[in-house]
């Protein structure tokens, strides 16, 4: 038995080694562009498989069929990225968009004090409403914080239409302001402290809902925005990538601390250490995929899994959205698989691959992943080479969240959900309005300078 388990552990080690090689090849092909779909897809699966192996203390196994599916799909993802690069070859790909000419008008961004005040008020309203919603549905207050947010989460009141819309609007504001800070810092134009207020309000507003996944989304948006702008400005050299890696590592450590502390507020981390949390959230989905792969032939088809976010639309056409029931432990529509049941560690997400394999088979999964990576590669390169990249980068960072989560869960259908569309639309409005205000301010300042110069020197 021990020998058998050891052989399976060797499969996980082999998978990590092959994925590491695939990541290196993907980075070489894309000239070290770590935000390109191919490197992202393979890197995320390398990260999750490594976490499963290391944090599982070499006690959790995967099987050869799971390993082969992960490896081949990563190759397919890189193929879609390369295909897009070949057929959409642009002469502007290597252009340094941070050139001095028209730098401010094209890339800078600022908002008025009135706009900043308005955004802050909206986030305060969301914060107050979230707390009121907690008190209304749980009869608890912040004085009972150990169970307050956990109870709120169990009630699911934060999934009401009004709460979802307010959550989406607040997220759009936060994503916009993250871009505002990153782009202006890159231009050495730091913002005044008052412009920090919306982001300061957003973090507790999200934490109070118990939705730690929102923090992951926010992290994904920030990482994409920062890395994209960093490489545009500094180039995609090995030295640039090394400096960037150090900065991202520090940022990731800080974020993990916040994520871990948020777990205590929701009551989900009371009995878990940070290793357990990282194992369940990052490494666990690969184990969940393996759990599914070994049972897929005996699981009945209960409807489409891939498009749960648009279930209302599917129902119109007589197509139902189901859920996979492994018969192990079921809560609501979620089926849990055991990771370390003796330690209370279970998972309910299965990477991006499970739902596609369940709905369309392996060949269908490859076609879907190839198409997704081709599209995202095209979209990403368009944002990189746009004459006005402000809005494309901001919006693409929101679209890119599912790409940064491929080794955890399938979130691509979420881009079609009303909440995600609201976020994208609101972020576009904020960015467009903010950019126009900024350009207008620059034009007004230039006009004043010309007028003052004329007054001082009338000749």
List key phrases describing it:
459 residues, mainly alpha, three-stranded antiparallel β-sheet, 16 helices, 3 strands, globular, disordered N terminus
Report on this structure.
With 459 residues, the protein is mainly alpha-helical. The chain is 68% helix and 3% strand. The protein has 16 helices and three strands. It has helices at residues 2-29, 37-55, 64-87, 103-107, 113-138, 145-155, 161-186, 197-207, 212-234, 238-266, 274-293, 311-316, 353-385, 390-399, 401-404, 418-456, and strands at residues 329-331, 334-340, 345-347. A three-stranded antiparallel sheet has the order 1-2-3. Helix 7 packs antiparallel against helix 8.
Strand content: under 5%
Cα-atom radius of gyration: 24 Å
How many H/I helical runs?
Answer: 16
Uncertain ranges: 1-7, 91-105, 142-148, 450-456
Give the overall shape.
globular
| Order of H and E elements | HHHHHHHHHHHHEEEHHHH
Mean pLDDT figure: 75
Strand order of the largest sheet: 1-2-3
Helix content: 55-70%
Report how far apart the termini are.
96 Å
Structural class: mainly alpha
**Sheet with most strands:** 3 strands, antiparallel
Structure summary, number of beta strands: 3
